[in-house]
Amino acid sequence: MFYHTKELQYNARVSGPDPRFASLLLEQFGGPNGELKAAMQYFTQAFVARKPYPDKYDMLMDIATEEFSHLEIVGATIQMLLNGVNGELKDVAEQSEISRLLKGTEEKEHAIHQAMVSPEFLVQTGGGPAVTNSQGVPWSGSYVNANGDLTVDLRSNIAAEGRAKIVYEYLMQFTNDPYVKETLGFLMTREVAHAQMFEAALDTIQPNFPQGILQADPRYSNQYFNLSNGTKARGPWNQGKSTKLKEEWQYIDDPRSHVTETDGLTRQPVQGSDRSLEEAGKKSQALGSQRSKEIKKAVGSGTNQWSSYPQTDLKSPKSARD
Length: 322
Ligand code: MN
Ligand code: MN
Fold this sequence. Notes:
By secondary structure, the chain is mostly helical. The chain is about 50% helix and about 0% strand. One manganese (II) ion binds next to helix 9 and helix 10.
């Protein structure tokens, strides 16, 4: 269950209102690389992991909860940057800093122009955050990547943390407010921490490449197709040994002839790899039954219970208790 702590995780502060930056910061509230996306992604991924990998469930839920805490910090910062907008809309009391900003016609035009970058602040949310990106596009569940396999999901999370980090890095260039910079620096740094947590968790799952269960076909796992004319770029992506499977890259210089000669690659022999097709098939089967057993053993069937009361160890109880 969720429990709300009244204090923010980080002491978010602003020097004064700045509706322009508030609208940019919405990107990390309801945007595709924002905190809600991160929170929902790790939260959603966690369910599949609960029984077979209770340690990963614990980590995913802790990080998801931290992302919700970041969402709260971003929302609070947006609200403070809009401080006075809501009051201004309710009452023309002329007390707020925003109303002073709005005094002269020129200033008012300027403020409206700034807020128009995200007009919902004026006419939709009345000066609060919206679950949209900085352009007002509504948040979408399609931002969430959860594929029911930790070797896939954890890699997706490492990439997601990188995207969140770079958006903070860009955002920091558009504010001069030292308090806001401080908060963004904290949020950015936490994404760097999370990326390493996911990387370490991925390392504890072996083998974790290729993702999933089925092994790569050794006839095609090390082929590089030169699919353009002109100068050829060569590098460790198409020469020497491949990074994970340690096979020799096969550079197909003329893919059109090669495809014709091999009858559409169906007569392609294994080259540059110690793995045979049979071995790959056997490994797929062995890994499939090993992972399936692990999961079935942990999940059980029939009556089921998620939590113990109190939950004193990481695992779910073996069966439902009355
Ligand atoms: Mn975050
Ligand atoms: Mn993160």
